[in-house]
Design a protein that fits this description.
The chain is mostly beta strands. It has one domain: Thrombin, subunit H (Beta Barrel), CATH 2.40.10. Strand 19 and strand 20 form a beta hairpin.
Length: 281
């Protein structure tokens, strides 16, 4: 499918991590803070750089008792994933009451993930290409006492297109609450779990494409799940990856990696953990 927008030239930015961004906003722009009992399978993950003295936070979703799926740029080889938890507000101690914690013992990004953290300018096809394999996982030492999220395992983009194009889906993430233009490190420690609804505008290069600023995502939301209702069930169909902005700073497009059987079966094989809602040979 081709998305028809003329001469769109924008800057691409990954959603998660401190990358020197100059933008303002709240996580899941215009989104709604979730109730404490909602989306318990959505976890914040906290990492440190191996070669740099800075930390990063991302979002993830539990798909098996010891397994979280997130974005590849949240689990690449230059990061050390230190913790995972599902509080109402990340970094605010009073909001951690009743939160579950996981001890990461292994993490990885998909081998086809293209670890390009910045790009001067690009177009929507570049955005989709960079999001297509932006998938990773975090393996926990001990199982979590939760029912895992169900995931979609589309064999290809065409099958997903038939079921998802134009549908409203729900985005969930821990993006930062603070003034993101002030200090890129500040938002990593403070994020309220929020949700927002957006329609899928297209599927390109194995990525889900969303349009516009309302309910878009910001740094810290990377790796968050995209939920859709299918056959009466809530299913994770994508993982939040990257966004692009116009020169005036407004949001143009947001991309999420489509969850496909190929990538999910790689997660199973590499982590050694079966995903209950996926059938891999």
């Amino acid at each position: 499918m081709k998305l028809r927008h003329s001469r769109l030239i924008v800057a691409i930015t990954i959603i998660g991590g401190a990358t020197g961004l100059v933008l303002r906003g709240e996580a899941i722009i215009d989104g709604t803070p979730v109730k404490r009992e909602e989306y318990a399978q959505v976890f914040a993950i906290h990492s440190s750089h191996v070669f740099e003295s800075r930390d990063e936070s991302c979002t993830s979703v539990m798909v098996a008792p010891r397994l979280l799926i997130t974005a590849g740029h949240c689990t690449h080889e230059r990061l050390r994933v230190r913790s995972a938890s599902n509080p109402h507000e990340w970094g605010r101690s009073q909001s951690h009451t009743g939160a579950l914690y996981g001890d990461p013992i292994k993490w990885a990004a998909h081998p086809l993930y293209n670890r390009i953290e910045t790009s001067e300018s690009s177009n929507i096809r570049d955005l989709a290409h960079k999001a297509a394999y932006d998938i990773g996982y975090v393996l926990l030492k001990n199982p979590l006492a939760l029912e895992p999220s169900v995931v979609g395992d589309y064999p290809d983009a065409d099958s997903a297109l038939t079921q998802l194009l134009g549908k409203n889906v729900t985005l969930v993430g821990y993006g930062g609450d603070e003034d993101l233009g002030r200090n890129p490190r500040e938002f990593n420690d403070f994020g309220t779990k929020r949700t927002g609804t957006k329609p899928i505008r297209g599927i390109m290069d194995l990525a889900l494409i969303f349009e516009g600023e309302k309910n878009a995502a910001v740094p810290g939301d990377s790796g968050g799940p995209v939920y859709a209702i299918q056959n009466g069930k809530t299913v994770v169909v994508g993982i939040l990856s990257r966004f692009v902005r116009y020169d005036n700073g407004s949001y143009a497009y947001l991309a999420a990696s489509l969850l496909r059987k190929e990538t999910l079966c790689w997660v199973e094989k590499d982590s050694g953990i079966d995903i209950p809602s996926v059938s891999c040979e």
